[in-house]
Write a structure and sequence with these properties.
heterodimer; A: alpha/beta; 2 domains; ten-stranded mixed β-sheet; 7 helices; globular; B: 250 residues; six-stranded mixed β-sheet; four-stranded antiparallel β-sheet; 12 strands; 37% helix
Amino acid sequence: MKEALCLKSLLAAPAKEDGFASFREEAEVRARTLKLPGPKHESWRLTDLAYLYGQTFQAAEGAGELPDIAAQVIPEAHRIVFVDGRFSSKLSDLPEIDNVKVSPLGLEDAGLHEHFGQSMQDEVFAQLNARNFEDCAFIRVTGEVKQPIHVLHVSTKREFPVALYARCLVVLEEQARATLIEAYAGEGHCFDNAMTEVVLQAQAGLRHVRVQREGDQAVHVGNTVVALERGSNYDATMLALGGRLSRHYLEVSHHGEGAEARLEGLTLVDGRQIADVHTRIDHFVPNCQTVQRQKCIAGGSSTAVFSGNIVVHERASGTDTKQESRNLLLSGKAKIDAQPQLEILNDDVSCRHGATVGQLDSEELFYLKSRGLSFDAARKLLIYAFAAEIVDRIPVRTLVESLRESMFGRLS
Amino acid sequence: MKLLDVKGLKASVDGVSILKGVDLSIDRGEVHAIMGLNGSGKSTLSKVLAGHPAYTVTGGEVWFEGRNLFELAPEERARAGLFLAFQYPVEVPGVSNSAFLRLAYNTLQASKGGEELDPLEFDDLVREKIKVVEMDPAFLDRSVNEGFSGGEKKRNEILQMALLEPKLAILDETDSGLDIDALRIVANGVNSLRSKENAIVMVTHYQRLLNYIVPDYVHVMHGGRIVKTGDKGLALELEERGYDWVRAAA
């Protein structure tokens, strides 16, 4: 039972005794009851977890050297940095303005606690995070914040595999507006377990960008839970680029009428990478909208999984959803599993979905080559073009440029 | 040495033989028109010369400036100075037209040992060249050919020709889908690019393009061969008498 050993290693270190001690204790009980998913677990059956279960992890004790984060910095953004799961005041650049409060654990506004840790009680990785998190970014926004807020998690190289816990709570109060960049980077053998909770109160608007570009030995399991209240607008771009094995679960709940969600995702994997994106969007109330577009690009002998579930509940008349999954296979050994799913319990709705899997278009390749471009240059250009539809919509120029560079570099 | 020498060229697509022995010789400074009905093989000839992967060469040979064309990949042919203006220019969503044009330009410059241009320098050049085809510079910022009208696509092809300065430009049905104003603009563009050093081959159905770009030679294709060659008078004769008499004569 490799998963039992793995779970044991994740629970070996004593839980932190802080203001969240009872919260951590309850989480441990749940984690032990839930257990790590085996191969038959419904929500995990498309994703081979052998790479995770083949390792045991230690807690990342003590602070190592400060990593160089120059390549990750977004100059125009407020920045809160966590190194191996711990807040780094040296690398952070926190805002000193009234309408945004970004605080690490212990310095947060206690008013945020009512939103903290309320969800995903049946998800073992979320519970492991709750039991083990060292720090958390608490972000509260009132009014409009023009500068993006950059939450950066960096892992450093260690001698043994370590388990790292990233945690973030973002609350936008009524009519608040903000841009959040949540980024994961670093190197080394690590198991990065991330939990992000987002609450948009009435009429609030969040532009959320999540970039997972960890090193090729990392395991990344992230959960993002988003609650949308009346008339709020959630616009997300989520990129799964790095890691040897990654999984991101996004759950969006429409709790207030007239809420809108636009969810865009891009997975780009090659070599032996496995990247799994699961999303679940619940329409609980009338007249909300979800537009979802997921793109996967898989080369080498990689695997990309997308499972997107939209559930329209009985009360949710006037729901409008669109779900599109487009996929690009770059090699005969790569695999893409794309499963858009709709569950509709109300008749008065407009729901469309579709999925396509294709290869690079030979006419487009020939056209580019006929103008002198090498096969390699033409191929890169077309792959990037496929990705660009998602990436170029990120509203932070420097980030788009850095992504463009690193993606182009990887494609060669 | 001829610029292009086609000898007994045979080619097929999906196992169906289309070209059945084409002979064609072109010198620098010449303008040739290849005419013929649908299915005569004229578009196949242009695609085979450019190296389209769907076509298989089954016989004959083609020499481009003394080099065996079939030993060159499509991109090497482009770098050697061969250019095909597509009958149906391909839409490439997500690739900006200006970025594509600059990449193509710089690739050819690099292979010639010429100077590559950065985006600002290239912008100056492309804004100069775009006048040749009277194209709205707004099309530079859009994806390659995506959502362009038929006429805009054809102008974009000739803009590429103007930037890449090929030795041999093959214009495959460049007149199709153009209204008379667009036809005149495109033809003026092509004429302004004519020189003693390069040659142009127009593949067309109709004589009307030849009123604007006057050929030195007119060839008629039928059944996968060139069955008649003449001067511009031949095009007028075809216009008047149709293709039947050529077919009968062949």
